[in-house]
Specification:
The protein is α/β, with parallel strands linked by helices. The protein has 10 helices and 5 strands. Helix 3 packs parallel to helix 10 (about 190-215) and helix 6 crosses helix 7. The radius of gyration is 18 Å and the shape is globular.
């Protein structure tokens, strides 16, 4: 593993020493995400309320430059410029390499339709069943670890060959027994769990970015 990748974890633990109890799980989560992207996979995220916002936040950090610039390769630039000679430079200059990710919580049309027509607690599971393929990763966020729609998504992910990372409070809930890796931050109050989730997923995003885009 690159030193720049491990350095991101060191920064997290220096700023939040209490999260050292999650170090092994954070490293295991990075390995799942890294393997996913090495094989051209997709990371899906889901959660409810504040955790839905976190699910979208994760995608935002993965789909564009987070701490690094992620400039296009020469090959990518030349392909764009060849196809669009007049404005190819502008197009290439204003694109960044992306790490493919999708927030299932942000898909309002399918979410509202499925909740209304079928079953609210299966809304994320349906999307995992539709999008997911072997080697993909699902990150499920639930402060209790017991959110039914997130738990069901993790269950279905396992049947599709999709690896699962749970982000919960210290108890872990049902997700602790279902997910491939569960990051249980040392808090129980909802707002405190969410406060810890943010630096953890920021670190995971920075680690993946460093693995693929650092010099």
């Amino acid at each position: 593993m690159k030193n720049v990748v491990l350095n991101e974890l060191k920064i997290l633990l220096a700023n939040y020493p209490e999260l050292s109890v999650c170090e092994e799980e954070i490293l295991a989560s990075f390995e799942l995400m890294n393997d996913c992207y090495l094989h051209g996979g997709l990371i899906m995220t889901c959660g409810n309320g504040g955790s839905a916002a976190d699910a979208g936040h994760i995608v935002g950090e993965l789909m564009k430059g987070f701490k690094l610039k992620r400039r296009l390769t020469d090959e990518q630039r030349e392909k764009i410029k060849k196809t669009f000679p007049v404005n190819g430079d502008y197009l290439a200059d204003n694109l960044q390499q992306a790490i493919p990710a999708l927030s299932l919580s942000d898909q309002a049309p399918i979410t509202s339709a499925f909740i209304n027509d079928i079953a609210a607690d299966m809304v994320f599971a349906q999307q995992v069943f539709g999008y997911g393929k072997k080697g993909d990763v699902l990150i499920g966020l639930s402060t209790s670890g017991n959110s039914k729609n997130v738990v069901n998504a993790c269950r279905i992910a396992g049947t599709c060959g999709v690896k699962t990372i749970g982000m919960t409070g210290e108890a872990g809930g049902e997700m602790y027994d279902i997910c491939n890796v569960t990051i249980r931050v040392p808090a129980t109050a909802t707002y405190r769990v969410q406060e810890y989730h943010l630096p953890v997923y920021h670190t995971l995003c920075a680690m993946i970015e460093a693995a693929f885009f650092s010099d």
